[in-house]
Amino acid sequence: MITEQQVHELIGSMNDPILHTTLAETGGIVEISIKEEKMHVSVKIALAKTGTPEQMQLQMAVVDALKGAGAESVGIRFTELPPEALEQFRGKAGEAVEDNLLSPENKVQFIAIASGKGGVGKSTVSVNLAVALARAGKKVGLIDADIYGFSVPDMMGINKRPVVRDERIIPVDRFDVKVISMAFFVEDNAPVIWRGPMLGKMLNSFFTEVEWGELDYLLLDLPPGTGDVALDVHAMLPSSKEIIVTTPHPTAAFVAARAGAMALQTDHSILGVVENMSYYESKKTGEREFVFGQGGGEKLADELRTDLLGKLPLQQPDWDENDFAPSVYGADHRLGEMYAEIAKQVIERT
């Protein structure tokens, strides 16, 4: 039979996930109740911060430990430590908040780049907007959250992998942008054959186990559409702004509206719309060909009651064989300047 003393010893040795101090030291074990006839153990635990992903991990650890000690069922309630109890751990709590990107107190601005369908250049926009923000002097991170269709490392010409230091993943730095992607964790461009829950855990790791350092912006290249992975990202983020990418084609804009509606339904605000592949301009004549039609970006912006941040033409970056990054436009490239203007609008609106 499990005793109250055993419960104290088992839980008391576990750390508050924010303070990184044992629950015995913080006084986090508020209440213990044991019903012997059913071997049900009920505990109330006080943490520095509730509602975090780390709280769920602690909850699972508590349940496993108590059931391993003989409890048939476990009930857990969480509350927050009182201000006076937190005061002595204030320094540790402040450091932990900076490391936890998902904490509401963290000041990083999340910007999710979404689209209704694939093939509209969403990843190209994500990469070049991240680079443009870095060129504007901002501290920028980029998560390639398109788990099945990861492409960011290849687009940016990244040929190395993250390293692990003190059990934390150090993202790859390219063009002054810190990058993390599923591509770093598979071999030889292998397909990812995972179901939703496993993908959710990987995304959570991108937020909580990567040493991002101080960031102004964290951009997320979302998978197209409104599937499980996109929904997981929306649910994980405490707050986020979104940019919806479309082509001028009416069908692309129609489908993209679903991604915008999903953002609004999850209490994320829409920063604006970017119309990609707006036209092709001949180098010889200067004549514009509207390959995918016209008006999709404006129509989508009107429907989502937001602004059209930019219209980007079809044009290849200038490739540098010595520093190959096949999808990144130079700062003095025509499209590089357009991305700089979009980045300027983003900064003004956030």
Write the layout of secondary structure elements.
Elements: H1 4-12, H2 23-26, E1 29-35, E2 40-47, H3 53-68, E3 73-80, H4 83-87, H5 90-99, E4 109-115, H6 122-135, E5 140-144, H7 152-155, E6 163-165, E7 168-170, E8 172-174, E9 177-181, H8 196-208, E10 217-221, H9 228-236, E11 241-246, H10 250-265, E12 269-275, E13 280-281, E14 288-289, H11 296-304, E15 308-311, H12 334-349
Parallel strand pairs: 2-3, 4-10, 4-11, 5-9, 5-10, 11-12, 12-15
Antiparallel strand pairs: 1-2, 6-7, 8-9, 13-14
What this model shows, in words?
It is a single chain. By secondary structure, this protein is of the alpha/beta class. It folds into two domains: 4-99, Fe-S cluster assembly (FSCA) (GMP Synthetase, Chain A, domain 3, 2-Layer Sandwich), CATH 3.30.300; 109-349, P-loop containing nucleotide triphosphate hydrolases (Rossmann fold). It is built from twelve helices and 15 strands. The chain has helices at residues 4-12, 23-26, 53-68, 83-87, 90-99, 122-135, 152-155, 196-208, 228-236, 250-265, 296-304, 334-349; strands at 29-35, 40-47, 73-80, 109-115, 140-144, 163-165, 168-170, 172-174, 177-181, 217-221, 241-246, 269-275, 280-281, 288-289, 308-311. The strands form four sheets. The chain has an eight-stranded mixed sheet with strand order 8-9-5-10-4-11-12-15, sandwiched between helices. A three-stranded mixed sheet has the order 1-2-3. Strands 6-7 form a two-stranded antiparallel sheet. α6 packs across α12 (334-349), α8 (196-208) runs parallel beside α9 and α10 runs parallel beside α11. The radius of gyration is 24 Å and the shape is elongated. It starts with a helix and ends with a helix.
